[in-house]
TrEMBL record:
GO biological process: methylation
Chloroplast recorded as keyword: no
InterPro entries in the cross-refs: PRTase-like, PRTase_dom
Single Gene Ontology MF annotation: methyltransferase activity
Entry keyword annotation includes Methyltransferase: yes
Top-level lineage group: Bacteria
Gene3D superfamilies assigned: 3.40.50.2020, PRTase-like
Keywords in alphabetical order: Methyltransferase, Transferase
Name of the protein in its database record: Protein-L-isoaspartate O-methyltransferase
Residue span(s) of domain Phosphoribosyltransferase: 12-180
């Protein structure tokens, strides 16, 4: 194990991101697991916290494996492995619509009284609790780039080397604490990796 829990990973990421301290960065967490981490990082850096809503497109026979992702605008990333995993164009479109419905529900639940914070002209740090294929992070970064941030940073505790290289094409900076050689799932690198529920996300964003 590399990390005791998400909190420990978040404090380590905050230290690695110290160059952005007191520059009022916008920390955008990918729900749900990264939201408690985003709170710690935003507080440490003197920034603001919000969510960036993206969803992976799971493989037809392996829901844990991402063959692509979709962002809040509907832009879709499809990996080169999608066809080999059995994903037809019809399946991808159907799954895209299903995930967009989840995104719309979460936006209404998470920030019902305000629009998303505007990233234009700001240092934007996108946080997740780890990357496997990097599909959701790519969708998040792509959507945010369209909104003209001053600097776009990807911050994750752990990811495979090839995933970091893939994501680097979409960000100005990638901060990744660990790149283990043997990588099966993000959770294997945490001693304690509980599911974060919607209620916790809502409470953190309300605060």
């Amino acid at each position: 194990m590399l990390f005791t829990d998400r909190n420990q990973a978040a404090y380590q990421l905050a230290a690695a991101l110290s160059q952005y301290q007191d520059m009022h960065p916008l920390v955008l967490a990918i729900p749900r697991g990264a939201v408690p981490m985003g709170r710690i990082i935003a507080d440490a850096l003197g920034g603001e916290l919000d969510v960036v809503l993206v969803r992976k497109l799971p493989a037809p026979f392996n829901p844990e494996y991402a063959i692509g992702s979709v962002d809040e605008s509907g832009w879709t990333y499809v990996s080169d492995s999608a066809a080999a995993a059995g994903a037809t164009p019809e399946y991808i479109e159907q799954e895209k619509q299903r995930q967009l419905a989840t995104i719309r529900r979460r936006r209404a639940e998470y920030t019902p009284l305000r629009p998303p914070f505007d990233p234009a002209g700001r240092i934007v740090i996108v946080v997740d609790d780890g990357l496997a294929t990097g599909a959701t992070m790519i969708a998040a970064l792509h959507g945010l780039r369209e909104r003209k941030p001053a600097r776009l940073v990807c911050a994750i505790p752990v990811a495979p080397v090839d995933t970091v290289d893939r994501v680097r094409l979409y960000a100005d900076d990638v901060v990744c604490l660990e790149t283990p050689f043997s990588f099966q799932a993000v959770g294997q690198f945490y001693s304690d990796f509980p599911q974060v529920e919607d209620e916790e996300v809502v409470e953190i964003l309300r605060r």
